[in-house]
Write a structure and sequence with these properties.
Blueprint (H helix, E strand, L loop, with lengths): L5 E5 L2 E14 L4 E7 L1 H5 L1 H15 L6 E4 L4 H12 L10 E3 L2 E3 L2 E3 L12 E9 L3 H12 L3 E10 L9 E6 L8 E2 L5 H4 L6 E4 L2 E4 L4
Parallel strand pairs: 2-12, 4-5, 4-8, 8-9, 9-10
Antiparallel strand pairs: 1-2, 2-3, 3-11, 6-7, 12-13
């Protein structure tokens, strides 16, 4: 499977890359024909910092009190908070970075995190937004707990409906030839007998071994 992989550079900064594998992959909410591996962005200090700087360019004039980091993006979130606090409207602001739970597509905020959301301006940071369901759940949760959702930042995003906050994407589905996302019950790859290559989540992918 990895033999099909190729590197994709961000349009605005070639130092930020993701590894893309074409095939048939199962995610929590959909089946997709590309796996977008963001391990380097999530794990390598320099790339995480550069990624954060790219996001900060879009939010330097947006007041932000808290960053909600999902899908193992907390290192990027910390760098983003630092970048925002060094210039622009958030200069010297002590921006919090938290990672609440997402269970059954609902954001759960424990009591110790409430002060960071209630009456605060909150930016959502996530790795992938292919269907919009995770973003919608998080925005709904921010508002439920009394916060103001000021935007969403995602490394990779496809076209989706229903999100009523500005969404910044470093990589888009338009960057991948014929990218497609299907509901599992109506996946044409499954119906045509194409076996699933791997199961994908925020930690990466696990290949499915067929015997």
């Amino acid at each position: 499977m990895e033999k099909r992989a190729f590197e994709l550079k961000a349009n605005s900064n070639g130092a930020v890359t993701v590894t893309v594998i074409p095939g048939h992959f199962a995610t929590k909410h959909s089946h997709v024909n590309y796996c977008v591996d963001m391990t380097k962005i999530k794990s390598q200090m320099r790339m995480a910092k550069t990624t954060a700087r790219m996001f900060a360019e879009h939010y330097c004039n947006t007041p932000i009190d808290t960053i909600i980091s999902l899908e193992r993006m907390k290192m990027v979130g910390a760098f983003l908070a630092s970048e925002l606090s060094h210039s622009g409207i958030n200069l010297h602001q002590d921006i919090a970075v938290i990672s609440p739970e997402i269970t059954d597509d609902k954001m759960i905020l424990r009591d110790n995190f409430l002060p960071y959301i209630k009456d605060q301006r909150v930016l959502l940071l996530t790795a992938s937004a292919s269907t919009g369901m995770t973003v919608n759940a998080a925005v709904e949760g921010i508002r439920y707990y009394g916060g103001e959702a000021v935007g969403a930042a995602t490394v990779f995003g496809a076209a989706f409906k229903g999100v009523d906050v500005p969404v910044v994407k470093l990589f888009s589905a338009d960057d991948l030839l014929n990218y497609a996302s299907y509901a599992p019950v109506s996946c044409p790859l499954c119906k045509s007998g194409v076996k699933t290559d791997a199961v994908v989540n925020s930690y990466g992918y696990s290949k499915i071994i067929t015997r």
